[in-house]
Amino acid sequence: MTDRAEPTGLRIAGALSYVCRRRDELAALLAGNDTALHALETAAGRPTVDDALLTGLLDTLHRAVRQAGDPFGVYGGTGRGVMPAGVGDLDVVYRCPLRLCTGRSGGEVDGDVPHCRFAPSGTALVRERLP
User: Which of 42, 47, 56, 116 has its CA 20 to 30 A from that of 97?
Assistant: First the structure.
């Protein structure tokens, strides 16, 4: 089992960050066939989660998203790397409150503070200014 304080692997963290940012778009793309998305949300919201379980759920969601027409799925492709938030924009980052995903760089946020899709409702990402 993964302790939230431990990184879950850059590939998993990057994919979870992508799903968190694009949850509504993914649900619309899957149009009624969003069982994989709901299963991932349920598992990721648990206090502890097994990396193998997350990987399996992400793989299932990745296939569903690709079959629905997104050629890159949740693991990304050109322009959707898994570089941790803040590496390219060394000013402000928004960290995942669950320490589950890579969060977002300040450049990815325009306006309101983003919220975590896997944490209890209304839980904002943690804004941090890097030294």
Answer: 56
Strand order in the sheet with 126-129: 104-105, 92-95, 126-129
DSSP 3-state of 49 = strand
pLDDT tens digit string along 116-130? 888 888 789 898 887
- Map residue 93 onto helix, strand or coil: strand
Alpha-carbon dihedral of residues 27, 31, 35, 37, nearest 10 degrees? -20
CA-to-CA distance for 56 and 58, rounded, in angstroms?
5
Per-residue pLDDT of 61-77, as tens digits, reads 999 999 999 989 998 75
| Global confidence as pTM | 0.72
Q: How far is CA 81 from CA 6, 16, 74, 110, in A?
A: 21, 12, 11, 19
